[in-house]
Amino acid sequence: MNIDYTKLMKAVIPTIRHCEVLGIKTEEAREGYLKMQMPWHEKLVGDTDHGVIHGGALTTLLDTTCGFASASALDPWGLAPTLDLRIDYMRPATQGKAIYAVAEVYRKTPNVIFTRGTAFHEGEEDLPIAHCTATFMQLDHAVSDGLKAWLKDFEVEKVS
Amino acid sequence: MTTLSALVEAQEYGSPDRLISAIPYAELIGVECIKLGHELIFKLPKNADNIGNPSLPALHGGVIGGFMEVAAMLEVLYETKVTVLPKVVDFSIDYIRAGRDQDTFARAEVVRRGRNVVNVSISAWQGAEDTPIANARAHFLIKPTPLGTEREPLSRSVL
Questions:
Q1: Where are the domains of chain A?
Q2: Whose CB has fewer CB within 10 Å in chain B, the N or C terminal residue?
Q3: Are B62 and A88 inside 8 Å of each other by CB?
């Protein structure tokens, strides 16, 4: 599908309340790929002695990034619930620095979508903060009616 | 108050609530801790700010994960009585049911306490404990190492 996914994600993500609370924003999106950003904020900290962002905020950032990367791999575009997610924390995030996350779909089957993602500071891609793998389930149509009602608010513009 | 001094105080008074107020993220999502005898039950009250799917509406999967990670860390502190802030090494979660927009509960169990690493199992539910919305496991490092030295990653010093 030729869709402007960056534009689409920039419309969808602000409707997700918890992403707004954490300040998660879309950077770049294409089919099966997504890059997001989460600014450093004191309310996201888990260890106030060192200003380190809590793992839970990173979980939300990576779940969102992997989840919408998998959504963009669906045809038609849709949403896939998370089956499972695993995060390896490689090092603490630095106080005051925004965290970026990228995710890609590395395998798509008729039922399951496999994704992987990393979180890092810009310019320090070789020293990631966290790695993540997550799998998502493709919904059958009966379950996704409510979802369709939400998603129909977003006009999908085809790019020729 | 710093997180570490709150930790020492929380352990002295046997009150994990004091620690929650020293973890901004735990306060942000609204984690509460209920002490039942010697057991800890964690509660995440219904909160519109934690919604991740407006169509159901459902809790954000990341919030469920974050809540369970907070629960696991507090359980480690309570169980092991360590005087360092346990650092999460890895975290793995299976989502079993959608988390509805209602109160969520969690219980964590220290499966094994090694000298440096603790293995924890966590379960979260809404209506009844025997129908969990998610199960998770995590490892925490409880080795007292100064964070300043740890921030120089090995790969960089080798380069």
A1: 5-151
A2: C
A3: no
CA distances from A109 to A73, A81, A127 (A): 11, 15, 31
User: Residue B155: which H helix or E strand, with range?
Assistant: helix B154-158
Can you count the helices (H) and strands (E) in chain B? Answer: 6, 8
Is A61:A24 a contact under the CB 8 Å cutoff? yes
**Phi, psi dihedral angles at A23 (to 5 degrees):** 80, 25
Q: How many CA atoms lie within 13 A of A21 on its CB side?
A: 21
User: Helix (H, G, I), strand (E, B), or coil: what is residue A89?
Assistant: strand
- A44, A63, A115, A148, best to mutate vs chain B, most B CBs in 10 Å: A63
Q: Which residue of B has its CA nearest to A153?
A: B55
Cβ-contact B133, B124 below 8 angstroms: yes
Task: Render pLDDT for A43-78 as a digit per residue (tens, 0 to 9).
Answer: 999 999 899 999 999 999 999 999 999 999 988 888
Nearest to A60 among B63, B88, B92 (CB): B63
- A42 close contact with B: CB closer than 8 A: yes
- The architecture of the domain spanning A5-151 is Roll (3.10)
Helix (H, G, I), strand (E, B) or coil at B85: coil
Tokens of A121: 């500071």
Residues for chain B: how many in total? 159
Tell the CATH topology of B3-158: Thiol Ester Dehydrase; Chain A (3.10.129)
Q: Which residues of B69-79 are buried (b: 16+ CB within 10 A; e: fewer)?
A: bbbbbbbbbbb
- In contact, B93 and B136? CB cutoff 8 Å: yes
Neighbours of A131 (CB within 10 A): 17
CA distance A97 to A141: 41
Q: What pLDDT digit, counting tens, does each position of B65-122 carry? A: 999 999 999 999 988 888 888 999 999 999 999 999 999 999 999 999 999 999 999 9
